[in-house]
Amino acid sequence: MNINYTLIGQMIFFAGFVLFCMKYVWPPLVTALTEREKKISDGLAAADRASKDLELAQKKAMEELKEAKVQAATLIEQANKRSSQIVDEAKETARQEGERLISVAKAEIEQEKNRVKEELRAEVATIAIAGAEKILGSSIDASKHSELLDKLAAEI
Fold it and tell me: How confident is the model at residue 135, as a pLDDT?
């Protein structure tokens, strides 16, 4: 065997092997690699989108949290205002009720005072008549001298 024939045979076989690989082996490998590359790029794009979505969601959550805090503060402020308003209304109602009770009590006192004065005048008139009877020694007729007795009671 000559080395030249062997070398030529190996080159022909290698060329056939390369053609066979290019026609039957290489296209599925290229397709698989292309699909794999596409999946990887899609995965990276999805990861980027997810990262951006996560960032947006975090920003939105922070904004909603701030808004909720503002709403809570507003509600607390309104509740405090309402409670102070209720307290003020209760104080005003209590003050008005106190004034009403005082005026009722004053009216009752005035009425009682007038009743006691009338009783006292009647009693003084009776005592005055009794004293006058003793002094004069005779009976004084209350019906005849009622005008004089009323005048005397009014002065007392």
Answer: 67
